[in-house]
Each structure stands twice: as C-alpha cells, then as structure tokens.
Write a structure and sequence with these properties.
Helix content: 55-70%
Shape: extended
Number of helices: 4
Radius of gyration: 27 Å
Distance between the termini: 58 Å
Number of strands: 0
Structural class: mainly alpha
Length: 155
C-alpha cells in the first residue's frame, strides 16, 4: 500500500468516527422540563376547584384512540409489494452476475429461496417482535414481546 491509500483510509475512518459521535450526540435525549402553567390558568383553577363537589375526583378526558386510515394502509401495502417485486429479481440478477455462467441458475434459485424463508420467518416471529410491546421497559426499545407469535393474539 502506498502512502496515499493509507492517508485516504485514515481520512475515511476519521469521518465515519466523527459521524458516529455526532449522530449519538444528536440522538441523545434529555429530560424535558415540565411546561410552566400560564398565569391565567393558575388564577382560574381555584374558582373551578370551588365549583366542583368535594368528594368527586378530578378526571382527565381520555385521549381519543388513533384512527387507522385505509388510504395510508393501502399505500403502504402497495409500496411494500412494489419493493418486494423489485428486490427479488434485482438481488438475484446482481448475485447471478458475480458467478460463472454455469452457476447463474443456482444463484437465482438461492436468492428466491432465501426470500421465501425470510417471508415465512417474518410471519412466524418477526411481526410479533416488531409490533408488540415488551413488558420490560428497558427491553422495549430493542425488541417486542411474543404475543402475536404465528400472527395470532396469544398473549
């Protein structure tokens, strides 16, 4: 290796390391201070408290449940199908181009077989780990629970 190649390699390493440090600093979350109540709200609170019955607890209005939009869901399914139809032949042809002529068909079949296995594994366990909440709050950031193992509501 000549000195120019070593220098370029070190520069690339330094840039990647700097980006990793900056990304970690940008993603760090601090505890936000609670919002200060406006002065008008603090003056109106005693009057509202005197109007409420003494034995009734103050109940907050429940938040409305998020609504699933059928258009958004249809678009996500369509775009996922398009990406899948594009990825399978794209990867198969890419890997097929890297082998000798006599091995192209086997490489195409392996790419298709790997896609089939990954699809089945997603249905068996991947969906559950991605879209459920883990009872442990520390692990919930990394992995879900197994409540929807085999796409069924088992939990």
């Amino acid at each position: 290796m000549n000195s120019l190649t070593k220098w370029v390699g070190r520069c690339v390493f330094a840039v990647v390391a700097a980006l990793m440090v900056m990304t970690g600093a940008a993603l760090a979350q601090d505890q936000a201070a609670p919002p200060a109540a406006p002065p008008a709200a603090t003056q109106a609170a005693p009057a509202a408290a005197s109007e409420a019955p003494a034995g009734a607890p103050a109940a907050a209005a429940p938040a409305p449940a998020p609504k699933i939009d059928s258009g958004d869901t249809a678009w996500m399914l369509t775009s996922s199908a398009l990406v899948l139809m594009m990825t399978i032949p794209g990867l198969a042809l890419f890997y097929g181009g890297m082998v000798r002529k006599k091995n192209v068909l086997a490489t195409l079949a392996q790419s298709f077989g790997a896609t089939c296995i990954i699809t089945v594994l997603w249905m068996i366990i991947g969906y559950s780990m991605a879209f459920t909440t883990n009872p442990s709050s520390g692990m919930n950031a990394f992995i879900g629970s197994f409540n929807y193992f085999l796409l069924g509501p088992w939990g």
